[in-house]
């Protein structure tokens, strides 16, 4: 009778050990799955943020290029205006000097 009870106790211990091992394996698998899922999500988020940063950088480059073109056009226009005024002033100066010279000869 005591050997039968002892056998039952040993079998119960084996079952408990097997269940504990099974639970440990499940816990490890869940932990590994959660870690893999977290790494995947982090990777996706990093890729998304990199794409957003690339787009922002590209938009900034375009904006800077547009501003540069605009400033160059404004500078060319201003230079043309200055050149035009200088040309007119030069003609006026020549005419003035010429008229003064003509007046001196009289």
Sequence stretches where pLDDT stays below 50 over 5 or more residues: none
Q: Work out the strand percent.
A: under 5%
Mean of residue pLDDT values: 90
How many runs of DSSP E, i.e. beta strands? 0
The proportion of residues forming helix, as a percent range, comes to: over 70%
Distance between the termini: 155 Å
Radius of gyration: 45 Å
Which geometry do the CA atoms define?
Answer: rod-shaped
Q: What order do the SSEs take from the amino end to the carboxyl end, as H and E? A: H
Using brief descriptors, characterize the structure shown.
106 residues; mainly alpha; 1 helix; 98% helix; rod-shaped
Write structural notes for this entry:
By secondary structure, this protein is an all-alpha fold. The protein is 98% helix and 0% strand. The chain is built from one helix and no strands. It is rod-shaped and about 155 Å long. The termini are far apart. The mean pLDDT is 90.
What's the structural blueprint in terms of helices and strands?
Elements: H1 2-105
């Amino acid at each position: 009778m005591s050997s039968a009870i002892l056998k039952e106790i040993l079998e119960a211990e084996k079952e408990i050990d097997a269940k504990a091992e099974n639970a440990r394996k499940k816990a490890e698998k869940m932990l590994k799955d959660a870690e893999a899922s977290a790494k995947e999500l982090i990777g996706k988020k990093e890729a998304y943020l990199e794409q957003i940063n690339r787009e922002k950088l590209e938009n900034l480059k375009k904006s800077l290029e547009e501003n540069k073109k605009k400033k160059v056009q404004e500078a060319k226009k201003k230079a043309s205006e200055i050149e035009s005024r200088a040309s007119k002033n030069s003609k006026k100066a020549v005419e003035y000097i010429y008229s003064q010279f003509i007046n001196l000869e009289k």
